């Protein structure tokens, strides 16, 4: 008998080909002759999604049936990246699906590139959340990612005449095959209005909240499949809608706008992601977004808990809730409101449950990124929460006073309310008081948190603080992004490394194997050639694959010092112009990164890089040896293309400013060497790969503090270093701006008069270090050895290691085996 596989789950070539054709017909309603590339992509996506569903439903059923602890990751951002390839790798069916597509006469790569990237994040914080979701599922830890389904994600970036232009990100224009709407699980969320105290039937003091408006939260679920396991966790993203999308009464009296007004107001809440990646703006809509998704998520958790249990007394045993920075910190007050007001649990018990439920991760030391909300705005939008925060603060400061009587400064510093000038609510304080655990994202960062930003909390509760150095998923950042390298590693040590990255160390045995080094080098060369072709085809720029690919891709920010990189490029340019016979290693400087639309200096830095590129790339004296390219629209898909192609990874932030960095890990895992400062996770990468395999420069954090304390005058460096002076004067002269001496003045003046991030102090050390890079790159075998060691010693930086630490030290969560019911 011919066994016909189920169209939905079969993995044979025939079944896959039939499934794609059927989905094109029955879902897209198209037959091949009239189908667009996007139709074929959708048909393929649904074919792959079908093969996720069994695991997904089995997982949900397993969790509902058992009383397992579920990790809930609350994040305002999830930078997931394209789903197709990642799901094919985690299902272990990449090659057969690729063949099925090609045997159907379609171009797999073309279809793959059709997928709109869900850009529901700004940068590091959002991408970390995505890597952690992949590791939670791959480690079979029950988990739910809770966030916001922005209609418009991070803007698409175009570069026009050297300037960043922001384009609206209509990622949902063709629909999203990877999500399922769950209208039946909608949740109501209140805003505004007033509160009313009353005594309930048992004479207990109670408060009710009478809101101005109610908004409906509709969840959209996306399956998050682990690597080669049966576990598929859920990413639940909330969309705001009006309870009644159409007011007939208003319509009948001809008030057409009134009829849809509520709809518009409600939907605005999840309309767009705030494109700021550090500086906060304290906009009302931002607070509405934060409260909206947090309230939906906590109400959803309580509903799930009461589905499995009959009292909320052990809610904290059901759910471990991680606050991804302060953006969801309102959750502390919201859980108290739900437990006390909605479920009549007494305050002290509710507070215990709340503190045992929440944990808080801080991702930044920059003072301007620490969220604080004006009391006026907060009280208007969330009157009941303001009362609850007052109550929390009063009880908290009571404890502080008991421990530090008469230390009024300390009490004022610790208070949830910043009373100096206009009053603010300090969200980092609310998160710290309401959590049983607080962590930074790299060893240095956590130390600086304890010594500086959260010093008073550390002195109060040292036991709450632990470090959780960031990690990245080797599935997307090696297996999906660099299949050739993954293949070479598989051939040498098998495939266990993909879930046990520390096993990469076994490859150290091959460093002295010339054949292996040749293969390693060839892979990098092939990828560089592919990137050069991509840049030629899409940006009409010729780059030399033989040159050293020096890459800096990350959000544009003064503390990340993309402009220090530009100062080095101009220095090198001047060296060649002054002495054309100088023997420099041909270099291609590749930049990528978005600037927050309101961040003027960041945008000027993009303009400077493009202006320098203009001159350098068109100067016959240098262009064969120096090329500068700013590739637009840096996102996850772009990262997957550029990390494997890099020779040198630029991690040059001012010491003490980059909390961790995660790009640094992705570069090193793909064999790039790092030039960097002792900042964030660079320090731990250098410890793992060996100081001899890391190009270190610059002031350390204590040296930065000391120099600041002593009084740092950038002019001293300008006058003392003629090479630096020449570079700065060249920029001021208008040489890179068609003679316009005003264009870059704001940037030059900020350096000469402030240089907040100490570029001048680190300039010479950076230039000298770059010379060491040149020396090393000349010795191909030496460089290859260093490249191999940089990659194979990166085991620590897998997000699996980080998640295992969170599970053991913060969440007390265990893996749960999901059976595959046939
Ligand atoms: C309110 C605006 C806003 C938005 C995002 C943020 C994030 C905290 C910024 C961010 O992405 N921080 C980065 O987090 C990464 C993951 O931990 C770290 O690796 C980076 O060092 C840190 O800059 C701050 C403020």
Could you characterize what this model shows?
By secondary structure, the chain is of the alpha/beta class. The chain contains 33 helices and 25 strands. Strands 1, 4, 7, 8, 11, 12, 13, 14, 18 and 19 form a ten-stranded mixed beta sheet that branches. It has a six-stranded parallel beta sheet with strand order 22-21-20-23-24-25, with helices on both faces. A hairpin with a 6-residue loop joins strand 11 (213-225) and strand 12. The longest helix is centred in the first third of the chain and has 29 residues, at 37-65. The mean pLDDT is 96. The protein binds ligand 26W. The ligand CCc1ccc([C@H](C)CC(=O)N[C@@H]2O[C@H](CO)[C@@H](O)[C@H](O)[C@H]2O)cc1 is lined by residues 122-125, 128, 276-278, 280, 325, 363-364, 369, 371, 441, 470, 658-662, 680. Its cofactor is pyridoxal 5'-phosphate. Keywords: Carbohydrate metabolism, Glycogen metabolism, Glycosyltransferase, Pyridoxal phosphate, Transferase.
């Amino acid at each position: 008998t011919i066994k016909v596989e189920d169209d939905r789950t079969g993995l044979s070539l025939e079944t896959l080909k039939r499934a794609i054709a059927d989905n094109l017909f029955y879902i897209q309603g198209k037959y091949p002759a009239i189908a667009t590339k996007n139709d074929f992509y959708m048909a393929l996506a649904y074919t792959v999604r079908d093969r996720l569903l069994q695991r997904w439903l089995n997982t949900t059923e397993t969790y509902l049936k058992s009383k397992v602890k579920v990790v809930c990751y609350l994040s305002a951002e999830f930078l997931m990246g394209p789903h197709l390839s990642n799901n094919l790798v985690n299902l272990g069916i990449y090659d057969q699906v690729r063949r099925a597509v090609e045997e159907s006469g379609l171009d797999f790569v073309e279809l793959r590139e059709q997928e709109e990237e869900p850009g529901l994040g700004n940068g590091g914080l959002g991408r970390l959340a995505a890597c952690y979701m992949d590791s939670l599922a791959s480690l079979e830890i029950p988990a739910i990612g809770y966030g916001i389904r922005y209609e418009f994600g991070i803007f698409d970036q175009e570069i026009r005449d050297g300037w960043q232009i922001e384009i609206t990100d209509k990622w949902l224009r063709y629909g999203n095959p990877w999500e399922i709407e769950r209208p039946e699980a909608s949740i109501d969320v209140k805003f505004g209005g007033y509160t009313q105290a009353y005594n309930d039937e048992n004479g207990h003091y109670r408060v009710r909240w009478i809101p101005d408006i109610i908004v409906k939260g509709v969840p959209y679920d996306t399956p998050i499949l682990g690597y080669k396991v049966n576990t598929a966790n859920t990413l639940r993203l909330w969309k705001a809608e009006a309870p009644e999308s159409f007011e007939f009464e208003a319509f009948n009296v001809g008030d057409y706008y009134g009829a849809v007004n509520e709809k518009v107001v409600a939907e605005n809440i999840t309309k767009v992601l705030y494109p700021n990646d550090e500086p906060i703006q304290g906009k009302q809509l931002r607070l509405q977004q934060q409260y909206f998704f947090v309230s939906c998520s906590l109400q959803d958790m309580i509903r799930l808990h009461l589905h499995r249990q009959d009292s909320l007394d052990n809610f904290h045993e059901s759910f471990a809730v991680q606050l991804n920075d302060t953006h969801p910190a309102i959750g502390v007050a919201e859980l108290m409101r739900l437990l006390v007001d909605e479920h009549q649990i007494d305050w002290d018990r509710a507070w215990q449950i709340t503190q045992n439920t929440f944990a808080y991760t801080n991702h930044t030391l920059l003072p301007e990124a620490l969220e604080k909300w004006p009391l006026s705005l907060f009280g208007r939008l969330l009157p009941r929460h303001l009362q609850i925060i007052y109550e929390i603060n009063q009880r908290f400061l009571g404890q502080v006073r008991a421990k530090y009587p008469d230390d009024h400064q300390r009490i004022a510093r610790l208070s949830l309310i910043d009373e100096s000038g206009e009053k603010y609510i300090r969200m980092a304080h609310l998160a710290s008081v309401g959590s049983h655990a607080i962590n930074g994202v790299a060893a240095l960062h956590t130390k600086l948190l304890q010594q500086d930003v959260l010093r008073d909390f550390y002195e109060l509760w040292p036991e709450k603080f632990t470090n959780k150095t960031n990690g990245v998923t080797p599935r997307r950042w090696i297996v999906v992004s660099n299949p050739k390298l993954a293949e070479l590693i598989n051939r040498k040590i098998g495939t266990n490394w993909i879930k046990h990255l520390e096993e990469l160390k076994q490859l150290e045995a091959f460093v002295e194997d010339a054949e292996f080094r040749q293969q390693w080098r060839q892979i990098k060369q092939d990828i560089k050639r592919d990137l050069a072709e991509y840049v030629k085809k899409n940006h009409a720029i010729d780059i030399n694959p033989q040159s050293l690919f020096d890459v800096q891709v990350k959000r544009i920010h003064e503390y990340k010092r993309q402009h220090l990189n530009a100062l080095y490029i101009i220095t090198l340019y001047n060296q060649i112009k002054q002495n054309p016979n100088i023997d420099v290693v041909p270099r291609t400087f590749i930049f990528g990164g978005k600037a927050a639309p309101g961040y003027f200096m960041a945008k000027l830095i993009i303009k400077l890089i493009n202006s320098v590129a203009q001159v350098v790339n068109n100067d016959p004296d240098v262009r064969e040896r120096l090329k500068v390219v700013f590739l637009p629209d840096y996102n996850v898909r772009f990262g997957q293309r550029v990390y494997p192609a890099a020779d040198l990874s630029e991690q040059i932030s001012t010491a003490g400013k980059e909390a961790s960095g995660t790009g640094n890990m992705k570069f090193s895992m793909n064999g790039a060497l790092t030039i960097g400062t002792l900042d964030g996770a660079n320090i731990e990468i250098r410890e793992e790969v060996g100081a001899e395999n890391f190009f270190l420069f610059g002031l350390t954090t204590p040296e930065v503090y000391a120099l600041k304390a002593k009084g740092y005058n950038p002019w001293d460096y300008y006058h003392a270093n003629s090479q630096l002076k020449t570079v700065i004067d060249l920029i001021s002269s208008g040489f890179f701006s068609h003679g316009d001496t005003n264009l870059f003045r704001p940037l030059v003046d900020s350096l000469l008069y402030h240089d907040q991030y100490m570029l001048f102090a680190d300039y010479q050390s950076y230039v000298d270090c770059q010379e060491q890079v040149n020396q090393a790159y000349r010795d191909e075998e030496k460089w290859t050895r260093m490249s191999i060691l940089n990659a194979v010693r990166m085991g620590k930086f897998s997000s699996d290691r980080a998640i295992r630490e969170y599970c053991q030290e913060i969440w007390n969560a265990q893996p749960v085996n999901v059976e595959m019911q046939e």
